[in-house]
C-alpha cells in the first residue's frame, strides 16, 4: 500500500462533512493532498521524468498543469482582464517541467498560490447555483470540475509514480 491506512492523512474516522459545499471542498482537498503525496520524496529528476514518448507528461508537469488550470478557472469567474498563462504558450506547463530544483520549488509555490486565489474567489460566492463568467457556469459546476480534474490527474500520477520507483497507488 502507498501509506499505512492508520497514517493516511486523508482517512478520518469522523462523520462526513455537513452540506454540499463542505462535501465538495473535502473531496477537492483529498485529491489535492493525494497529488502531493504522489510527488513526495522524489528529486527534481524523478519529478521531471516523462512517461512514455511522445508524451511530455511528468509528475512535475502535472503540478504545473494544475496551477495553470486553477488560474484558468479563476479567470472564468473574476471580473476584468484575464491573467496571462503562468507558463507561456500552450503546453508550456508540461514542456517546461525540467529537472531543476528551482523549477520544482516554483511549481509548488505556483500551485499553492493559484489554489488559494481560486478558493478565495469561489468562497466569495456562497450560492452554489449562482451563474458566473461569460459562459454562465454555476459555482457548483466549477467546483465539481475542479474535483474531476484533480481526480483524473491523480490517476495519471499513480502511473507516473509507479514508473519512477515502483510504488503503486491506493
From TrEMBL:
UniProt cross-references to InterPro entries, sorted A to Z: DinB/YfiT-like (IPR034660), MST-like (IPR007061)
Gene3D superfamilies linked: dinb family like domain
Pfam families recorded: MST (PF04978)
UniProt name for this protein: Mini-circle protein
Species name: Streptomyces showdoensis
Amino acid at each position: 500500500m502507498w501509506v499505512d491506512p492508520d497514517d493516511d492523512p486523508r482517512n478520518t474516522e469522523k462523520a462526513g462533512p455537513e452540506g454540499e459545499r463542505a462535501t465538495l471542498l473535502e473531496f477537492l482537498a483529498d485529491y489535492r493532498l493525494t497529488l502531493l503525496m504522489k510527488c513526495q520524496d522524489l528529486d527534481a529528476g524523478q519529478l521531471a521524468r516523462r512517461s512514455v514518448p511522445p508524451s511530455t507528461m511528468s509528475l512535475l508537469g502535472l503540478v504545473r498543469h494544475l496551477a495553470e488550470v486553477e488560474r484558468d478557472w479563476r479567470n472564468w469567474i473574476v471580473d476584468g482582464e484575464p491573467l496571462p498563462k503562468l507558463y507561456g504558450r500552450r503546453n508550456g506547463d508540461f514542456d517546461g517541467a525540467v529537472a531543476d530544483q528551482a523549477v520544482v520549488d516554483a511549481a509548488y509555490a505556483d500551485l499553492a498560490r493559484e489554489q488559494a486565489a481560486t478558493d478565495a474567489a469561489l468562497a466569495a460566492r456562497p450560492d452554489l447555483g449562482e451563474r458566473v463568467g461569460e459562459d454562465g457556469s454555476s459555482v457548483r459546476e466549477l467546483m465539481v470540475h475542479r474535483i474531476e480534474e484533480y481526480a483524473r490527474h491523480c490517476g495519471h500520477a499513480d502511473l507516473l509514480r509507479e514508473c519512477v520507483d515502483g510504488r503503486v497507488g491506493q
